[in-house]
Amino acid sequence: MKKLIKPAGFYNVKAGRIQEVSQILIDQYGGEVPGTVEELVKLPGVGRKTANCVMVFAFEQPAIPVDTHVHRISNRLGLVNTKDPEVTETELTKITPRELWIKLNDLMVQFGQNICKPTSPQCEICPCTDICSYHDELA
């Protein structure tokens, strides 16, 4: 298993966690992955971001996984004004139509990797400068 997940980084820790969670899923959930965020976060090493990723990518259920890109971009654009990713998630669920939740993470991650980069945002090619709080601060 370590060989398979090595590219993800921290593979020694992750391999142990995968084995631990797998055993819990067998013992306590009949080999099935829980289908709610509330149950998923009870598993060791599973936080809200991971639980929301499972909901979106495994179960195709509406959720908003907030990773570093989603948190950064949401704040830069002025959609939210938060310091904590969990608060960002809560605020985004209030302002984003539920039918867009599944797509939101993927779109923001791509945007964050290609345009609104952490240290060198490419404002000159950004289609959002007219609504972007960060761009307004730079001007």
Question: Which short descriptors sum up this protein?
Answer:
mainly alpha, single chain, 139 residues, elongated, 8 helices
Helix count from the secondary structure assignment = 8
Element string (H = helix, E = strand) = HHHHHHHH
The proportion of residues forming helix, as a percent range, comes to: 55-70%
Distance between the termini: 49 Å
Largest sheet: none
Mean pLDDT: 94
Task: Identify the overall geometry.
Answer: elongated
Which oligomeric state applies? single chain
What structural category do the secondary elements indicate?
Answer: mainly alpha
Radius of gyration from CA coordinates: 17 Å
SS elements, strand count? 0
Strand fraction band? under 5%
- Outline the low-pLDDT stretches: none
Report on this model:
The protein is an all-alpha fold and 139 residues long. The chain has helices spanning 2-5, 11-29, 37-40, 48-58, 68-77, 85-95, 101-114, 133-138. The chain starts with a helix and ends with a helix.
Summarize the structure.
With 139 residues, the chain is mostly helical. The protein has helices at residues 2-5, 11-29, 37-40, 48-58, 68-77, 85-95, 101-114, 133-138. It is 57% helix and 0% strand.
What topology emerges from the helices and strands here?
Blueprint: H1 2-5, H2 11-29, H3 37-40, H4 48-58, H5 68-77, H6 85-95, H7 101-114, H8 133-138
Helix pairs in contact: 5-6, 5-7
